[in-house]
Amino acid sequence: MQRDNGMGYRMDSETNKNAVVLLSGGLDSATVLAIATAEGFRCHAISFRYGQRHERELEAAAQVAEAIGTVEHVVVDIDLAAFGGSALTADMEVPKHDTVEEIGDGIPVTYVPARNTIFLSMALAFAETRSVGHIFIGVNALDYSGYPDCRPEFIEAFQAVATLGTKAGNEIAAGIRIHAPLIHMGKADIITKGRELGVDYSITTSCYDPVGRLACGQCDACLLRRKGFRENGLEDPIDYQ
Questions:
Q1: Residue 23 and residue 1 in contact, taking contact as beta carbons nearer than 8 Å
Q2: Residue 2 domain-assigned?
Q3: Which one, of 145, 128, 121, lies nearest residue 137 by Cα?
Q4: Which of 14, 113, 159, 180 has its CA 20 to 30 Å from the CA of residue 135?
């Protein structure tokens, strides 16, 4: 069943094959875009210029969107740097390590307060204006930096928000569905899946503290990324300083 949502289109997420994909330009989000595309979704990519020090990711996101193919790629400006509170948005040092084993268990200073809550909220608004019944996000709870907004419990809770807090969720039986296909996958498995789908990882970037176009090689994101390629018996195709 499809119903008019009052915004000039008809939508039912049971049959709707339009999706919003959060695209950071990193390894995970590129893989998620490839997964959604392979599943037959027409993908509307959304990226954010949020005051991050690593704006190189937006260049990568544009390349990934073009390479894999999207209906559109929208970049939204949100100034989270006005709040600070993170090594990615404020004048704080990004932690560096020599090995993955040195990464701590706590929530690191690279955590951006409420970032995925904000990004998913924006994606919901985007979805309701684009006849979209699905949102894809590349969070995962294995081989990650310990961010609380990357856990399955968070995604489940936000699904409830999407259902309760949107017109689509209140008027359409299935509402807008949140998909996190990488949530239980480690980096090695993500890379394996992406390579099966033809993702060109040489155009992605994951580094928290790049030097120009070069990845630093020592932040949590770089170490976890390189570990994933190493476990696949591969060299990471991007350039490191």
A1: no
A2: no
A3: 121
A4: 113
Residues in the chain, total? 241
Tens digit of each residue's pLDDT (9 = 90 or more) over 143-185: 777 899 999 999 999 999 999 999 888 887 678 999 999 999 9
Q: Whose CA is closest to 82, among 121, 52, 58?
A: 52
Per-residue pLDDT reduced to its tens digit, 207-219: 999 998 899 999 9
Domain assignment of residue 66, given as a range: 12-231
- Reference 222, options 237, 205, 234; nearest CA is 205
**What's the CATH number where 157 sits?**
3.40.50.620
Counted domains in the chain: 1
Residue 7 lies in a domain: no
User: Residue 7's pLDDT is what?
Assistant: 37
